[in-house]
Amino acid sequence: MRGDHPPVGPFTMRGYYQPGAKGRSGQTSVQSANYWSSTTNANNTSNAWNVNFNDGNVNTNDKSNNNYVWCVRGGA
Asked: Which domain holds residue 13?
C-alpha cells in the first residue's frame, strides 16, 4: 500500500458508511467524528489514517490526536 492513499477495506466503511447511520450494525452512541484506522501513513509515520463518520472524509492525523476507535473482529 502506498502511503499517499487511504486504506481500502472495512475501516474506510466501503459498503457500510452512511452519514448518521446510528444503530446500523447494532451500535449506539456513534459519534459524528474521526475514527482511527490501524494503518500508518507510510509517508509520515507519525500519522495514521482515519475516517470521519459524519461525512465519510478519509484523512490522516498525528497519532497523538484524540480520535475515536471502532472495534471489529475477524471472521465471517
From this structure: 1-76
